[in-house]
Automatic annotation (TrEMBL):
GO terms for cellular component: extracellular region; membrane. This is Neutral ceramidase. Belongs to the neutral ceramidase family. Its cofactor is Zn(2+). Pfam families: Ceramidase_alk. Keywords: Hydrolase, Lipid metabolism, Metal-binding, Signal, Sphingolipid metabolism, Zinc. Residues 477-505 are annotated as: Disordered. The active site is at residue 344. The lineage of its organism: Eukaryota, Sar, Stramenopiles, Oomycota, Peronosporomycetes. Zn(2+) binds at residues 192, 301. It comes from Phytophthora fragariaefolia.
Length: 505
């Protein structure tokens, strides 16, 4: 038997404008055992269709303040810069042989496509004005026949599946399925496209730049996810799962190589590159051996379409999904985000702190990077793969990352917070953005001088508590302590901007 370790990453941001009670969301472990098999999977060839924009006539969506919503929100937060490492689904070696019931479903979640701000670049001027490609949600049900344990994995062509969306989906599932699908076995995952409409959040930090809550978009996403789950549930039948992986050539570029070099040399020596270049895929078959669906993961940002883009789109991952589903016979294909923290799809360095794609236009750049993911996954579908066997297991724990005890260190008079993590703050340089999309010109990366504008904004909103500053400064260099910060801790304001608690498997 060949043990396989596979980590599946997505985007799930926790948001609310009101002051929710802290209840954390869930993350899952699926455990499978893999056996070698030399069977090849045949595909049906067909010419891919074009990727043409469609400009619809859509009424402007109404905006409502999130405080009108009466939801108990699940609390979730991110530990790293940007939008990554939110959903982790390790596929580990199992020891028991089992058969699976497999269900797959798909639904449209495009929603309004005019006069609604996109979510991702945090720029209120990035307002949608049409559709380049529609957005979909794809649900994959895996049930262990021996134990009746199941996992419903739902992939969405969105920047992130907001916490408010997750809460509403769970509420609807509880009403319809009476405990069959809960936070313990439902994973809502996003591709992380920055060309999907926003306004479905809740916390001010994320909703501010989308100019509020848009119920039309929220309802479309929630109902679409439910439709995909229902389709997967109702289509469940006996089947098999196969697994394989491959390298993707020119599939991304590290946009922060100097930061990567700060990792210990012993750790960097373990890898051939400063990015993960591996695509991993699960292939789902019915009992007759027909391919029903593919769930793949590749770590590159879907940011080929820049902040200047005005068309709703799944970006490079959406294009790859489109090509494969158009080519294959009645097969549902999802390509999710993985560990893409600093992996840019834009390979050309402009020499001024920004990157651009390889195409003559951003749409061409999205097609180029999408085609590379399509090529890799198409080869995986046709190539050798390993049979997945074993039990389906889901485990969950909750962690408040603002107050984690650190072992092996001692607090001192000069460093009283050495034994714990700190409530989150954002430094002034976060507003500088990234190589894929810069923020206001007054902010620049690596600026260690206090920014007067940021200081003023921070002071007006609410000063960072002294103890939080001391806690954060314990691990900073002397010069970086001068950089202005803004506290995001729920304990530092009456209405938290985001949350501290997260889940781990």
């Amino acid at each position: 038997m060949l043990p396989i370790l596979m980590s599946l990453f997505g985007i799930f941001h926790s948001l609310s404008l009101d002051s929710p009670k802290v209840v954390a969301t869930s993350k899952y472990k699926g455990i499978f055992q893999h056996l070698k098999d030399q069977e090849r999977i045949k595909t049906i060839d067909g010419p891919p269709m074009g990727f043409k924009p469609v400009i619809p006539k859509i009424a402007s969506p109404s905006s409502e303040h999130c405080s009108d919503l009466k939801y108990q929100l699940h609390v979730f937060d991110k530990m790293a810069r940007g939008f990554w490492l939110h959903w982790l689904l390790p596929m580990l070696l199992g020891t028991l042989s089992a058969a699976y019931n497999i269900g797959i479903g798909k639904s449209d979640i495009t929603g309004p496509a005019a006069d609604i701000v996109m979510m991702g670049f945090a720029d209120p001027t990035e307002s949608a004005a049409g559709i380049l490609s529609r957005l979909y949600t794809r649900a994959f049900l895996i049930e262990d026949v021996a134990t009746n344990k199941r996992i419903m994995f739902v992939h969405c062509d969105l920047m992130s599946v907001m916490q408010l969306v997750h809460q509403e989906v769970l509420t609807k599932l509880a009403t319809k399925y009476h405990g069959v699908y809960t936070e313990q076995n439902v994973v809502l995952h996003a591709s992380h496209t920055h060309a999907s409409p926003g306004g479905t959040a809740g916390y001010f930090l994320y909703d501010a730049t989308t100019l509020g809550f848009v119920s039309e978009n929220f309802d479309k996403i929630v109902n679409g996810i439910m439709d995909a789950i229902n389709a997967a549930h109702n289509s469940a039948e006996s089947g098999t799962i196969r697994w394989n992986k491959a390298e993707v050539a020119k599939g991304g570029k590290n946009r922060s190589p100097s930061a990567y070099l700060a990792n210990p040399s012993s750790e960097r020596a373990k890898y051939a590159s400063n990015i993960d270049t591996t695509m991993r895929a699960l292939h789902f078959f019915n009992s007759s051996g027909k391919l029903r669906g593919v769930l793949a993961f590749y770590p590159v940002h879907p940011t080929s379409l820049t902040v200047k883009n005005k068309l709703v789109s799944g970006d490079n991952k959406g294009y790859a999904e489109f090509l494969l589903e158009d080519e294959l016979d009645d097969v549902i294909v999802a390509i999710g985000i993985a560990n893409a923290g600093d992996v840019s799809p834009n390979l050309i360095d402009n020499g001024n702190g920004t990157f651009r794609g390889e195409g003559n236009t951003t749409i061409e750049s999205a097609e180029i990077m999408g085609k590379r993911q399509y090529d890799a996954l198409s080869a995986l579908i046709k190539g050798k793969s390993e049979l997945v066997e074993g039990s389906v297991i889901a485990n969950l724990s909750y962690v408040d990352f603002s107050n984690v005890t650190l072992n092996g260190v001692k607090a001192t008079t000069s460093d009283p917070f050495a034994t714990r993590t700190c409530p989150a703050v954002v430094g002034q340089n976060f507003a500088a953005g990234t190589e894929d999309g810069r923020g206001p010109s007054t902010f620049t990366e690596a600026n260690l001088k206090g920014n007067a504008l940021f200081k003023a904004i921070s002071a007006v909103i609410k000063p960072t508590p002294a103890w939080v500053q001391s806690c954060q400064n314990a691990n900073k260099s002397r010069s970086s302590k001068l950089v202005s910060s803004l506290s995001l801790s729920p304990t530092s304001r009456s209405r938290p901007w985001r949350a501290d608690a997260s889940e781990t498997p």
